[in-house]
Each structure stands twice: as structure tokens, then as C-alpha cells.
Amino acid sequence: MSDILVVEDESIIRSALKRLLERHQYTVTEAESVTEASQHELNRFDLIITDLRLPGAPGTELIDMAKGIPVLIMTSYASMRSAVDAMKMGAVDYIAKPFDHEEMVRTVGRIVDAQRKQKVRIEGDDTEEGDEHQPHSTLGDLVGSCEAMQRLYRRIKRVAPADVTVLIHGESGTGKELAARAIHQLSPRHDQALVSVNCAAIPESLIESELFGHEKGAFTGATATRQGLVEAAEGGTLFLDEIGELPMEAQARLLRVLQENEVRRVGSVHARTVDVRLIAATHRNLKQLVKEGRFREDLYYRLQVIEVTLPPLRERGQDVIEIAEHLLAKHSRRLKMEHPVVLTKTARKALVKYDWPGNVRELENAIQRSLILCDNGEIGTEELGVDQGDWQIPDTLVNQDTDTPESRAANGSNNTAPDTDELSLEDYFQHFVLEHQDSMSETELAQKLGISRKCLWERRQRLGIPRPKKNANGSTANATQ
Ligand SMILES: Nc1ncnc2c1ncn2[C@@H]1O[C@H](COP(=O)(O)OP(=O)(O)OP(=O)(O)O)[C@@H](O)[C@H]1O
């Protein structure tokens, strides 16, 4: 049986809530204010439900006072703002008054359940209680122990159990998708699906039907009714990477999912109810996009309930070595390396000194490349290429069929990128794209360059060579995006 402390100054609401919870087998203690609540030993409760506005101190004060105990905020000022602020301060969730009884019972059940599971996991791990404040060198697939990563882990653990939308910020390649996965894994939805979608990688014309599904005949080519990815995430989590690239029409449909828990397939007049938690990520400044009229303000406010920020790799100090070694082990296994490969002392220093504009993804490429190029079991600065700017061997080359050490060595000594000394990769990229963009689709171009469609799109943005748009007569014209 779980113990709940209800802090509410309006006695009618307080006793109604008490009765409701007791009917569901919870033990309830009441308090009228933070001061009265603080006379109890807060640590013995499994959950504290508190009104935000109370006589004297606000309910949010209990978040710090009851370290580790989830605090659910009730607010009659159903403004998003105060609820968002409470969540930022560490509240596990919020519920707007007047609340629906069923919703309250469901929310309480979910939090208490998640809390119990977390306790079991912590005890099972043989970790001390108060684990939240123990330093960790990993969380899920994220590796790194610097202070910024510790803060990130703590934040992920706090937001994961609350069923709220999370917006992840961070430069490209910082691990936003891994962070989303960690949130899903630590949430009560962890045994349901996590559906990941990269909004920048799906052609604009297809994105609505991909996400929301379509009815048969909704558009040319819609030969059958199809469920969208939002529906595929039913009961679980939907991760929308690069949400800043979502076209306006799709933004409107997504807003409906968030506001009404409803999805309407393209070409359908009927809405379907969905139960999906959204995690979105972007490397862009969404506020700026809102100002420029390219992102809906209402959607922006819905998304930024809780924000999580991934630090750039250059700000993670010695973590870069920890991550490099982790990636070295991972890719040595993948490439079935016969002998262990290590980083030289100079290489380690160079790793820390280099500023990694492409973050962990760039580091991962450098490690993969080095494993192929090194021949004496040691990786030095030359193999890493950290002194030579940020050129990369395309992934397709790295992932080529390199099953034997001989063929790997051959790939290296063939010098697959002979021009890189004279021609920077960016020049090469620019030439290649300008030369072939009229005759190749974006997918073909990306494939030839060995990069993802999204990466192609990002580089186009960075280098100022926007994708040409096809005119009605089939010729192309550059369009600023
Ligand atoms: N802290 C980390 N420890 C280990 N591997 C990491 C870490 N962060 C990122 N990676 C690896 O780096 C690569 C890029 O990570 P991820 O795709 O999560 O980044 P992202 O921020 O979502 O990038 P983008 O914005 O370009 O989609 C992945 O292969 C991931 O496994």
C-alpha cells in the first residue's frame, strides 16, 4: 500500500481527493500548507500531491524539501507557464484543477508504479539509496562522466517517469537520440514501442502520411489505407528528431495529437484516439523559427514543457577519451579485429584538444576510420585525422565489406581519399553536389556521398547550396529553404 501526502488549502478539494485515493487503496495524510506538511517526515511518503498556490510558501518548495520523493503539482491556474516552471523545478508531473477523477487516479498509479520499479532497480543494482546524487559514467547507451553529463543523467532520470513532452536540444551528433532512448527506457512506457523518426530525412511531400497515416485514395499512389508512425507508437514513445524541419501542415496535425490525443489520417474525416508520449529534438533555435514564422508558436509552447540539453563534445573535457575508448571497443568488435587497438598518448591529448564540430558522430567516424587505417595496433593523430580539419571518409566506405584484416589494410593503403590533401572535403562535397544535383535525386546524391539525406541537407544549409526545386517544366531552380 502506498502512502500519499495531500497538501491543499481548500478543505473540500482536499477531502474529496482523500476519499478518491482511499477508494483506490492508498493511505492518505493531509496538510493545509507547506509548513504543516513539513511537520511530517516527508521521506516516508511514496508521493506528495500539492496545490501550487498555498497560503505561505508555494507547493513547489516541497520539491527540494522532499528530495527524491515525487511531487505532483495541482494547479487551478491552468496556465501552461506555472506548470512548466514547476516541472523545471523538478516536479514529477502536473494536473490541472478541476481534475478528472479518472485522470488523477491514472496519474497517481503511474507515478507510484514508476517509483516502485525504480526502487527495485536501484536495490537490484546494489546501489545506495539517494542514487540520484552518485556520479555515473553511463546512462543507457550514453557514455561520459563530466559534470555536464552528470547533470544530464540526473535530469533524464527526473523527467523520464513523468508522462510529459520533452524537447531535447543539442548540436548535431551530441547524442540526442541516445538521450531520447534513455528517457523511454526509464519511463513506465519502456516495455512498449519507441518509434524514432527523423523529420529531416523524410521528403516533405511524404511526411504527413508517414507520420499520421492515410486513407486509400487520399492522394495519387495511396493504393491502400496505411497507419502512420504516430499510431505505431501507441502506448509507447514517439521520438521526432529535427522537429524544426516539420512542415507547417504536419505541425498542425501534431499539435492536435498533443492537445487532444487524437490523430487524423490524411484523407480521413475521422479522428482516432492515441496514447503516445512525445520526445522531440532539434539543433535549431525553435524560438527563432517561431519569430521567423516557420514554426507554430502554440506547438513550440506545447513542446518545451521540459527541456533537456546535450552539451557539445568540446565542453566535456576528458569524456572524449572515455567515449573514444568505448567506441574503439565497440567497433573493434564489429570489425572483428584480431588484436586490441589502443590510442597513443599523443592521440589522447589531440582528442581532448580538438574541438569536434561534428561532436560524437564525428568522433565515431574518426575512430572507425582509424581502426581501418592503423596497422600496428596503435591509433595516432594521423589515423584520427584530428590535425587535418573535419574531413571524413564516407560511412559507406567505412562500412564496406571489410571482413578480413587484409582487405581492411588494402582499403587503407589504397588511400580511398587521395584528393583530401589538396581538396578539402567541403570543396569536394560542393563540387560533387553542384555537378550532379540536376541529374540525381537527393537520395542518390546522399548515397554516392556516403552520408544520410539529413546530413546532405544540413551540409547544403551550412555551405549555402540549397536544394534545387523542380519546376513544372522539369527544369530546376534553386530555392532558399
Ligand atoms: N555520450 C555518448 N556515448 C557514446 N556514444 C555516443 C554518445 N553520444 C552520441 N553517441 C553516438 O554518436 C552517434 C550520434 O548520436 P545521436 O544520433 O544520438 O546524435 P544526435 O544528437 O541525435 O544527432 P543528430 O542531431 O545529427 O540526429 C551515435 O552513433 C551515438 O551512438
TrEMBL record:
Gene3D superfamilies: 1.10.8.60, 3.40.50.2300, P-loop containing nucleotide triphosphate hydrolases (3.40.50.300). GO terms for molecular function: ATP binding; DNA binding. Residues 472-481 have a biased composition (Polar residues). The modification 4-aspartylphosphate is found at D51. Residues 142-372 form the Sigma-54 factor interaction domain. InterPro entries: AAA+_ATPase (IPR003593), AAA_lid_NorR (IPR058031), CheY-like_superfamily (IPR011006), P-loop_NTPase (IPR027417), Sig_transdc_resp-reg_receiver (IPR001789), Sigma_54_int (IPR002078), Sigma_54_int_dom_ATP-bd_2 (IPR025943), Sigma_54_int_dom_CS (IPR025944). It comes from the Bacteria. Residues 3-112 form the Response regulatory domain. This is Transcriptional regulator. SUPFAM superfamilies: CheY-like (SSF52172), P-loop containing nucleoside triphosphate hydrolases (SSF52540). Residues 390-421, 462-481 are annotated as: Disordered. Keywords: ATP-binding, DNA-binding, Nucleotide-binding, Phosphoprotein, Transcription, Transcription regulation. CDD domains: AAA, REC. The keyword Ubl conjugation does not apply. It comes from Saccharospirillum salsuginis. It holds the Pfam family AAA_lid_14. The gene is cbrB. One of its GO terms (biological process) is phosphorelay signal transduction system.
